[in-house]
Amino acid sequence: MVNKGSKKKKKRASMACNAATPVFPVTVSTLVCATCCKYKLGKPKMRCRFFHMYSVPPKEQKPDGVSCNGLGIYDSNHYACLLQTLIDKRDLRQGNLLHAHFIITGIIKDNSFYGLKLATMYALSGSMEDARQLFDKMPQRSASLWNVMIRGYACNGQGEETLRLYYQMQDTGVQPDRYTFPFVLKACAALLDLQRGRDIHRDIVRFRLQSDAYVGTALVDMYGKCGSIEDARELFDKMPKTGITSWNAMIAGYTQNGFAEEALELFLRMQQSKVMPNVITIVSVLPACAHLGDPQQVKDIHDYVVINGFDSDVSVGNSLVAMYAKCGDIETARNIFDKMCKRTVVSWNAMVAGYQQNGYSNEALNLFHEMQASNVIPNRVTVVSVLPACADMGDLQLGKDIHENIVRDRFDSDANVLCSLIAMYSKCGSVEVARQIFDSMSTRDVVIWNAMIAGYTQSGHANEALRVFCQMRVANIKSDSITMLGVIPACAQSAALQQGKVMHAYIMRSGFELGVAVGTALIDMYAKCGRIRVARQLFDKMPKRNLITWSTMIAGYGTHGQGEDALALFQNMQQTSIKPDHITFTSVLCACSYAGLVDEGWQFFESMTRDYSIAPRLCHYGCMVDLLGRAGYLNEAHDFIEAMPVKPNASVWGSLLSACRIHGNIELGEKVAEHLFDLDPEDAGNYVLLFNIYAAAGKWDDAAKVRTAMKDRGLKKTPGSTLIEVNNKIHAFVVGDTRHPQSDQIYEMLEILERRMEDAGYVPDTKFILHNVEEEAKEHMLSVHSEKLAIAFGIISTRPGMPIQITKNLRVCGDCHTATKFISKIVRREIIVRDANRFHHFKDGICSCSDYW
Fold first, then answer.
1. How many CA atoms lie within 13 A of 305 on its CB side?
2. Hey, how many other C-beta atoms are within 10 angstroms of the C-beta on 276?
3. For residue 740, what are the CA distances in angstroms to 114, 789, 834?
4. Going by C-beta distance under 8 Å and a sequence separation of 6 or more, which residues neighbour residue 83?
5. Comparing 257-261, 498-502, 774-778, 789-793, which segment has the lowest mean pLDDT?
6. Torsion of the alpha carbons at 810, 813, 817 and 820, rounded to the nearest 10
7. What string of DSSP letters covers 458-513?
8. How far is Cα 648 from Cα 848, in angstroms, rounded to an integer?
9. At what angle are helices 650-663 and 618-630 packed, to 10 degrees?
């Protein structure tokens, strides 16, 4: 007779797991063995002796796993193998399930090894919260466990927590080792915390690990990333043995700190030392070549990459795209991008950023759409490149769409993304939305403050930019050079000379290094605030100047009508190693135009292509039209436009229409105006220019038709406003303004000036007033123009003999120009007027523009 119990045992034994049985997830809390759970013949609930659960594994799942023993029970070796598999695969889901099993069975309480492995799995999978909960519950914490946690925090970008844990580790009596310090130093590098990096260095010396190659390389990397490249090089040179990782760290340090020549020199020395470069080396060297911008060097390194087979690596391909884009060779960058066998999101980002940085914003947006169509998911870096392209193209709607995606993908906690959003909304004319984003942030670092200041400055809200800077100082946020690059242009924009001087003093007092960027901004500020001599003195004192510095100084001379000084400076520049670009030539041609240097302008225009291979752009054609038109060569200017290889825009035709106004050419003015009305029918300024041409010729019927056309289109002349700075405060005036606290004294001074001007022969020029009113009313309107109010306020508010400087948002009107000449002679003061086009220096009844502006 057969024993029923023994049959049952045999049946169960036959169902036991055999070798190589995979592990399947079935619920949120457990795993099951595939063979332990039979699902044939409609019998799904066979008990698994391993997990003590009833479950059915999905037939389609075939994940890798570790075998159990013949009885379906795992031993310690199998657990160890299973844990290592989960660590290698970063399999957080299955790791959670196995962790649950350990808790149920109580295994983890008696085995710190399993706790270490689970913590490693969580840390490497990015789940530091789970890792920390496990860590805090572990009764025994070895140095290895502390190292796992420190590594996890460092690799997940939590630098402060990394350092906090490092000090806790020592407080509990556990000594750091060679596996601790590299990740602690990584945290210091990520935080750019040089001081704490030095403190860690002292600990390394105390624990006698300074000769360890692993630790030494981490020190070199930390010093390089924290900007202390001299310390990095000193350590590198003292290392007893330098492997490929050490060389890479030093080369990357040089590249990241702008020492491109040193990076390339070390790259050559590395090969001479018979240390073969790897992919990381190449990725570190290529940006150095981009920084130098030497075409031959770029070609040589590209040939080296191809010959040694590095070009098949996707990260090298990405770096090649970025290198050519930074060198301005966007066509080659795109060719490399198109030929890449594999493209990651980094590849797309490099090409999108390349287009945007080289001024091809439309192409950047097209590529972004192509990226989305290719099912490549954009990341934070993509957003930071695409938003500036939206701003450049004025595509507010696309910017809003991207903003919605940012919120959906939870990128709105990233400072760089928020800065890009603030800049995009500001440049697209929605600075109020930018401010809402700024105000909604609970914490703001200097980068966010800088973005808001720059946003206000770039959108023309200079006073708001200065106000935010004051709020920033009240909030005890330490400003940096980027802050100054937002604040100084705001001073220039509002012609706030005194505030600009305060900023200059603040820079000197705060110990800022007067670098090229800040120095150039100060030169621009002094030039735009009417102090061209101070700008030149600062220019001469700068130890280093770049192309932008030279171009800014040349442009400053040009707007002040000092064309000969501008050309002399350009000749000095040509004697240096700095080559002019299209912006420099724009400054030079504008200087020729303002000074009436026609022959010189032609020579420079032809030199662009002949000597520098710079193809003229619309701005250069516009400068030439302005140059010819101002000098009275109206027909030549018109012929020049007709012969242009590119279609003229409203700016080019507008320059010719302004010239027709200056020289009273009605016939040509009418033709030019028709072009402008077709190109930009909503620009009221074009109608005003044509009205002035008719009014100057006494053709009142035609002038009235222009006024009627404006009215029918609902167009209004932009209201004129004038700013003047007195005692560090900006005062604004509009026509007929009576809101100023000293309004009574201002109008009293105006009456005195009017009587004295009439005695000197001044006659109000009413022909340019658009309104259909009586002559007496027109004269009154002229007498209360914003320029005159600001000048009168300057006279009563400053000491006799002091220069008076005002800023007008529009081109100064003909009557005010004449009146200011009289006033400068009467009060014996220099009056500096900056209008929308240029500077006018009035002195002794004469204007620097020679009455052509």
1. 29
2. 10
3. 78, 10, 22
4. 98, 114, 117, 118, 121
5. 774-778
6. -80
7. HTT-HHHHHHHHHHHHHTTPPP-HHHHHHHHHHHHHTT-HHHHHHHHHHHHHTT--
8. 30
9. 10
pLDDT in the model for residue 767:
64
Please write the tens of the pLDDT for every residue from 228-240: 999 999 999 999 8
DSSP letter string over 769-815? Answer: --S---HHHHHHHHHT-HHHHHHHHHHHHS-TT--EEEEESSPPPHH
**In which element (H, E) is residue 66 found?**
none
Report the amino acid identity of residue 75: D
Coil/strand/helix, residue 658? helix
pLDDT of the residue at 765: 78
DSSP state letter for 176: P
SS (H, E, C) 429-465: CCHHHHHHHHHHCCCCCHHHHHHHHHHHHHCCCHHHH
- The Cα 237–Cα 251 span in angstroms is 13
Tell me if 721 sits within 8 A of 462, measured CB to CB. no
Q: Give, as one character, the DSSP assignment of residue 40.
A: G
SS3 content of the chain, % helix, strand, coil (to 5): 65, 5, 30
Tell me how far apart the 2 most distant CA atoms of the chain are, in Å.
143
Q: pLDDT tens digits for 415-431?
A: 889 999 999 999 998 99
Taking only the tens place, the pLDDT of each residue in 467-491 is 999 999 999 998 888 999 999 999 9
Domain ranges of the chain: 1-60, 722-847
- Look at residues 763, 749, 744, 776 and name the one whose alpha carbon lies nearest to residue 821: 763
Q: How crowded is residue 379: how many other Cβ atoms within 10 Å of its Cβ?
A: 16
Q: What is the Rg, in whole angstroms, of the alpha carbon atoms belonging to the chain?
A: 36
Using the structure block, give the residue that is written with the tokens 């990241």. 256
User: How far is residue 193 from each of residues 133, 413, 444, 559, measured CA to CA in Å?
Assistant: 28, 22, 19, 45
**CA 489/CA 496 separation, integer angstroms:** 10
Res. 548: pLDDT tops 90: yes
Q: Which percentage of the chain shows pLDDT scores above 90?
A: 63
Q: Where are the beta strands (DSSP E) in 633-773?
A: 721-726, 729-734
CB atoms within 10 A of CB 399: 24
pLDDT above 50 (res 334): yes
For 168, the token pair is 């806790």
- Return all residues near 700 (Cβ < 8 A) that are at least 6 apart: 694
Over residues 522-543, mean pLDDT: 94
Comparing 444 with 772, the larger pLDDT belongs to: 444
Cα(91)–Cα(79) distance, rounded to whole angstroms? 15
**Residues with Cβ within 8 Å of residue 492, at least 6 apart in sequence:** 500, 521, 524, 525, 527, 528, 529
Distances (CA, A) of 21 to 27, 32, 550, 578, 773: 18, 10, 74, 71, 99
Q: Are 386 and 349 in contact (CB under 8 A)?
A: no
Residue with tokens 């993509």: 382
Exposed/middle/buried for 472, CB within 10 Å: 0-12, 13-18, 19+? buried
**Distances from the Cα of 601 to the Cα of 341, 611, 624, angstroms:** 50, 15, 7
First to last CA, the chain: 122
The per-residue b/e assignment along 73-82, b for 16 or more CB within 10 angstroms, e otherwise, is ebeeeebeeb
Euclidean distance between CA atoms 503 and 487, whole angstroms? 8
Instruction: For residue 91, count other CB atoms closer than 10 A to its CB.
Output: 18
